[in-house]
Design a protein that fits this description.
3 domains; binds flavin mononucleotide; NADH Oxidase; about 300 residues
């Protein structure tokens, strides 16, 4: 059967590859047992119905969380599944008042686990010489692999998901509320549930592929980079992709009125505001305090734990 341009897989492929390559990729999708279609048509969901997940779906998610690759077979993560409404409400507050965490029947709290392997090392009678910052980076990769696999599994079964970096902002408090031991650190969450009635998230735009994927070497001319960013910015302004998520001007902490007119707020301004807002500073300082308070040595001193 030929693919058509109103095929969602074709549209998703075309949004990053262009029409010609998308023809071939969407044809290929028919041989990928649904994987390519699920991957390419991903869109985050932020409105959920209340129904709990059936047991078999939850079991599939648990299997997906742990069947992915894990750095050095260390399994340096622990995922905590939260279904209890009261506990979930608390998590929603602590992760930046994100109401969809509260709404979705399941929250998975992905935690870097720098405890288990250290305990084993000590129990075997060795000094723990691993470096916490290095381990935190590989633990983050481990747990993100699991969450993404769970997310794709859920989406392949008709459920919706949203990844939750906001968990890091409440890491210490979330760890306390979940009774986590020292060195088990909540970093990223995933909400899962049936999309709310009538809610069908649209495919969201991506930066042009040459900015995000290179071949062999860096090989990107600065003028080309600027032109590609301009192009993306214009498209997101025209489509008003970020208007609904505009970072309020007072958050920039510079006073006066918002200089960006309605309709002129695109990817470039949103990115700059996200990274430049005054409210960002305390969040950074909080991570600096939270991670050591959870027993990690992450100041890059090169120290090791005796
Ligand atoms: C590591 C990570 C953290 C994220 N954190 C949040 C979050 O805290 N809240 C949220 O609503 N979306 C969060 N997202 C979802 C992104 O906002 C979303 O993926 C992005 O806007 C692109 O939209 P799409 O996923 O629909 O294509 C996160 C995504 C990733 C990968």
């Amino acid at each position: 059967m030929p693919t058509t341009h109103d095929d969602p897989v074709h549209q998703a492929a075309a949004s990053v590859l262009g029409d010609d390559a998308a023809d071939a990729v969407s044809a290929l999708a028919r041989h990928s047992r649904g994987v390519l279609a699920t991957v390419l048509t991903h869109a985050s969901v932020r409105a959920f119905g209340p129904d709990p997940l059936p047991d078999d779906v939850e079991d599939a998610l648990q299997a997906a969380l742990v069947r992915g690759p894990t750095s050095s077979a260390l399994h340096s993560y622990t995922h905590v599944l939260v279904r209890d409404p009261e506990r979930k409400r608390r998590m929603a507050q602590l992760a930046g008042n994100q109401r969809w965490i509260d709404q979705a029947p399941l929250l998975i709290v992905g935690c870097a686990d720098l405890r288990r392997a250290r305990e084993v090392t000590h129990a075997q009678g060795y000094t723990y010489t691993a470096h916490d910052l290095r381990m935190l980076i590989s633990a983050t990769a481990d747990l993100t692999v699991g969450l993404q696999n769970a997310s794709l599994t859920a989406q392949s079964l008709g459920y919706g998901t949203v990844m939750l970096g906001g968990v890091l902002n409440g890491s210490l408090e979330i760890a306390q509320a979940l009774g986590l031991p020292e060195r088990v650190v909540p970093l990223v969450g995933l909400s899962v549930g049936r999309p709310g009635a009538g809610h069908r998230p649209a495919l969201r735009p991506r930066l042009p592929l040459p900015l995000l994927v290179r071949h062999e070497t860096w090989s990107l001319d600065p003028d080309d980079e600027a032109a590609l960013i301009d192009r993306h910015d214009e498209q997101t302004r025209a489509a008003r992709d970020f208007e609904g998520r505009r970072i309020p001007w007072p958050e920039m902490g510079v006073g006066g009125d918002d200089p960006i007119a309605d309709g002129d707020y695109g990817w470039r301004e949103h990115t700059a505001r996200k990274q430049g807002r005054a409210s960002w500073r305390p969040q950074g300082a909080k991570v600096d305090v939270d991670l050591p308070a959870q027993g990690l040595r992450v100041r890059g001193t090169g120290e090791v734990d005796g």
